[in-house]
Specification:
mainly alpha, Helix Hairpins, globular
């Protein structure tokens, strides 16, 4: 049973992230308190799913737990005590956590071995985590310096606006409705775009190489 559940650790993280990206923009239709509670629930579930995703190695899971625990507390403290400092520190810690989780997942994905559904799910999770990391970076940058990004909206931007901009940049779609204005924002944008292109090229090439090489290895052993 334990092994059966472990097979879906990446799929669980992938599911929670997709639900978050799809449903988070709809939270604006609710009152502020309800929306913040639901947002914190989603963020907590993603963080817990991220810890479980790297539970294959004990030391990695321990590090992830030590990072996630204060982050979750800060998210909920920001609701109880409406101080943006708690929220911004939680965002900063989330960046560290997601970078650590994405790196750990990529090590598993790029490691030698057959291309299984776990590796495919892991590759997708790492890609979404990269986009989410940059969304949080842009969110903190905009908070620190609102003039760094030009947002063509007539309201206070939400995290979904930065998620949108991040993935438009990561996939090099470039719609142009949100544009970087300051040097730091421009540098972060082109770095994310380059990472997105290299990710597709390197990860796909590696998985294809592993898939092609697996039958040859089996044949040679026979």
């Amino acid at each position: 049973m334990k092994l059966y559940i472990a097979r879906f650790r990446f799929a669980g993280l992938l599911l929670f992230m997709f639900l978050f990206f799809i449903l988070e923009p709809l939270l604006g239709l609710l009152d502020m308190i309800t929306a913040q509670i639901l947002l914190n629930i989603f963020q907590t579930l993603i963080l817990l799913a991220a810890v479980y995703a790297v539970s294959g190695k004990r030391h990695t899971m321990i590090i992830a737990c030590w990072l996630v625990a204060p982050t979750v507390l800060l998210f909920w403290f920001s609701l109880i005590y409406p101080d943006n400092l708690f929220l911004y520190v939680a965002f900063a810690l989330s960046i560290v956590i997601y970078a650590f989780i994405a790196t750990s997942i990529l090590k598993f994905v790029l490691n030698r071995g057959p291309v299984t559904s776990q590796k495919i799910y892991g590759a997708l999770c790492a890609y979404l985590l990269i986009g989410h990391i940059w969304a949080l970076i842009f969110r903190l940058l905009y908070t620190w310096h609102p003039g760094s990004l030009n947002l063509a909206i007539q309201r206070e931007p939400g995290i979904h606006d930065f998620i949108y901009f991040s993935f438009v940049t990561l996939t090099t779609l470039g719609y142009g409705d949100i544009t970087p204005l300051e040097p730091v924002a421009r540098a972060l944008s082109w770095i994310e775009a380059v990472i997105g292109q290299f990710y597709i090229a390197v990860v796909v090439a590696r998985l294809v190489g592993l898939h092609i090489g697996a039958p040859e290895k089996k044949a040679s052993s026979d």
